[in-house]
Amino acid sequence: MLKKILPAVSYIFHPIFITLYATIFYLFSNNSTFINQEKIFIIAQIAIITVVVPMLFFFVLKSTKIINSYKVLSVGERKIPLIIHCFLLILILKKTITIERYTELHFYILGALTSTIIALMIAFLKRRVSLHMIGISSLTIFIIGLNLHDQVPYTIAIAFLILMNGIIASSRLALGNHSERQLIVGTLIGALPQMLLLYLWL
Asked: C-alpha distances in angstroms, 107 versus 86, 103, 136, 142?
């Protein structure tokens, strides 16, 4: 049973979905003033850019044997997906999630871009970190930031995300995908940029 649950958790909280989760929470938070049409439009854009497009790239990379697995377990296979992710996040910051209209989410994505660049640099040094932990820890800090900014108690969401940090870390260890050090470093890479950028929008 546990062997089925742990992979499912890893897929649900795959890094490719985290920006979409952050966007949905931001747009539908209690302090949101966006109309429904705008919410749908933004979510659709983010879903296409951060989920659909990367999946298409993964399919092409797998078909051309540039990567051997969609899990991109080796250091060498991570470089191209991370570079693509960087460019997609830059596109979002420039064209979709502007600082004037979506300030908080803009800085979250800027933090995600910073974390991705750090992960890419580490990949070029032939080292691996947990991209899952980068994603879930960055999302956790962002929701905590919104809690402080909106003065609305997102207690259940924060407690759930903190719990998921532990479950995802455990699943990555149990599945043999990462070492404890890689999980810790991944958590720091995800959380620290978000914490530093909080000072710009809180």
From this structure: 15, 6, 16, 9
Q: What are the pLDDT digits (tens) for 100-157?
A: 999 999 999 999 999 999 999 999 998 999 999 999 999 999 999 999 998 888 999 9
Listed in sequence order, the residues at least 6 apart from 73 whose beta carbon sits closer than 8 Å to its beta carbon are: 177
pTM: 0.92
Q: Which parts of the chain have pLDDT scores under 70? A: 1-3, 69-73
Coil, strand or helix at 139: helix
Cβ–Cβ < 8 Å for 168, 14: no
Q: Which two tokens stand for residue 168?
A: 């995802």
- For residue 151, how many other CB atoms are within 10 A of its CB? 9
| Alpha carbon 133 to its chain's center | 9
Name the CA radius of gyration of the chain, rounded.
16
Angle, alpha carbons 18-23-27 (nearest 5°):
155
